[in-house]
Amino acid sequence: MTKSIAIIFLALLTGSCGKEKAPNERIDELFASEFKPNEPGAAVLVMNDGKVIFEKGYGIADIDTKEKVTTETLFNVGSITKTFVANTILLLANSRILSLNDSLPRYFPGFKNPKMASQVRIHHLLTHTSGLPDNRRVLLDAPFLITAGDQDNWNPIEQNDSLMFEPGSHFEYSNPAFNGLALIIEKTTGVKWQQVVRQLIFNSAGMPTSKITDGAYPEKGVAHGYIDVLGEFTERDYGEEPTFAAAGNGGVWSSVKELMNYEMALQKGQILATTLLEESRTAKRYANWKDSVPPFIGYSWFVGVTNDGTKMISHTGTQGGFHADYVSVPHKGVFYVVLSSRPFPRELFRERIFDILGVELQKHYTPK
User: If exposure means fewest CB atoms within 10 Å of the residue's CB, which of 90, 321, 343, 364 is most exposed?
Assistant: First the structure.
């Protein structure tokens, strides 16, 4: 080999080695390094500029059957469920079946202190600003909570005789608030709330395989949740972990593909009118706000911005072994969703994904 040819060959070799990997390759490496083939896994879908650039499943959905995770595998989405309940409430309000300004005694006349409860409106439940204490752990033992449904989880809330703060003045994340909202859907429609969500949202969004916990746990056709206990994965879902039966705060089971359909249907106005969607995804600033942080939540959605000021919408989900993250930056055509059947460093992965996409995130609160 002549000296000139050797130099050209070396330059080509160096250039190919130094070439930056494509975003989809970098995303694949990120998740492949975390989720091993024979361990509880995850499904991921990423959109950029309005196009799907990556979708893949990792690991297994069930340790017993060894069924592989795909982008169509159903996971429990945890608190992302709250967005389905909230959007259903908004649809009922838009149809004048209820008002977001209705006070709680209208639907729950059994409050121990009705005067206190009359201060709380439906919109306070939607924005986690009701001030109602979560007293379930005091009144109910853990074995009861494993099988307690929405009504059973809401009943202790009616026994409160005082508020933690004036409604609208502070943020306090509340799971029972969404058990109450689910019950309001049933009280106003006369139909189980799960059925109403299927009709108004699942059918409109193209989510035919998604499920909602309604009594019996969907043991087949879904991933199971696990946690690592002393180096071994132990199942932590329905039957082992409280709150699974209380579906209003975390009962939806879906896939990354159908959650993409959900987000696209929202953006296209197929579920909520555009103006109503914008209202639901705008942080609510109450006149009496006294919290140490600025308002950052709409009607269930967490509202932030990227470093260039573009609005970012998100919600996380955690229940038992399940971990989920759902992030949308509509004006950039960016959408990222991951559903996992075991805990993983979710916040770090969100940052890494958006770094790969060239979108810098600002820090903002998300619940665990």
Answer: 364
